[in-house]
Amino acid sequence: MLKPAMSLAFLRRGPALLVTCILVVEAVLFYLVPTTEHVPNPPPLSSFRADLGPWKQYSEIDLDPETQSFLKADDTVNRNYAGSEGWLSLFVAFFKSQRGGVTPHSPKICLPGNGWTPEGSRTITVSIPGDPKPIPMNRYLVRHGEERIVVLYWYATAHHTVADEYLSKLYLMHEGLRYRRSDEAVYRVMAPVLADGQDRAEARAIEFIRSFYPPLKQQMWSE
Predict the structure, then answer these.
(1) Contact of 204 with 191, CB cutoff 8 Å
(2) What is the rounded distance in angstroms from the CA atom of residue 48 to the CA atom of residue 26?
(3) From CA 188, how far away is CA 191, in angstroms rounded?
(4) How far apart are CA 154 and CA 51, in angstroms?
(5) What span, in angstroms and rounded, lies between the C-alpha atoms of 130 and 128?
(6) What residues form DSSP beta bridges with 52?
(7) CA spacing 20 to 30 A to 13: which of 78, 132, 160, 217?
(8) 27 closest CA partner among 15, 19, 38, 17
(9) pLDDT band at 3; cut points 50, 70, 90
(10) Dihedral through CA 158, CA 71, CA 209, CA 154, nearest 10?
(11) What's the confidence (pLDDT) of residue 79?
């Protein structure tokens, strides 16, 4: 448990202070406009198809009650897919409304909490079939003992896709004011680093994303 002084010191840091201000402004503007929030109801993520071209689902992992309580997501999917060059992990958490203060958690927080040590991070852009421009993603390298994994993750709403969690809050404000909605999803793909190196692991992850993201995006945001 953080001491009060430590908690206040954290809130004075630039990124935390910025997000706090954004959330306060968003909440004030959202509640001042007397209209009903649009809360989507897409098909459950569990109904997403198991076969994605060369990638075949071989396991689906249920989140334990403690993790579900921490995430507070309205829907999740947590699967492993296998292809000719090994396996990949897909995790998606969907929040139908953030009006109650529930927001997506950054994998940069969750992974170290589960024993993974970060070794580096940067932002990349990935071209997706059907999207007019490449989408930004966080590229994160982590280690657990001798195992190393490349992690790609990003945030999406019905109208925006971003890598930066602080920028996602700005876009969410726009979504709330213009479209009266606050639904958002965080996508995470994990690819193990094999003998062919981390660049190839990243390439496998990108190939997988290009296979699953267009149909999953259609399922989640088609309305």
Answers:
(1) yes
(2) 32
(3) 10
(4) 22
(5) 6
(6) 55
(7) 160
(8) 19
(9) very low
(10) 60
(11) 97
For the segment 156-179, what is each residue's pLDDT rounded down to a tens digit? 998 889 998 888 888 888 788 888
- DSSP H or E segment with residue 221: helix 198-221
Instruction: Name which of 118, 125, 107 is nearest 143 in CA terms.
Output: 118
Give the tokens for residue 210. Answer: 């290009």
What distance in Å separates the CA atoms of residue 96 and residue 81, rounded to the nearest whole number? 26
Say how many CA atoms lie within 13 Å of 133 toward its Cβ: 5
Residue 38, classified by CB atoms within 10 Å of its CB into exposed (0-12), middle (13-18) or buried (19+), is middle
With a threshold of 0.85, does the pTM exceed it?
Answer: no
Collapsing DSSP to helix, strand or coil, 11 comes out as helix
DSSP letters for 26-61: HHHHHHHS-SPPP---PPPGGGS-SEETTEEEEEE-
- In whole angstroms, what is the distance from residue 183 CA to residue 144 CA? 33
**Is a pLDDT exceeding 60 seen at residue 189?**
yes
Rg (CA), the chain: 18
Q: Which residues have CB under 8 Å from 66's CB, separation 6+?
A: none
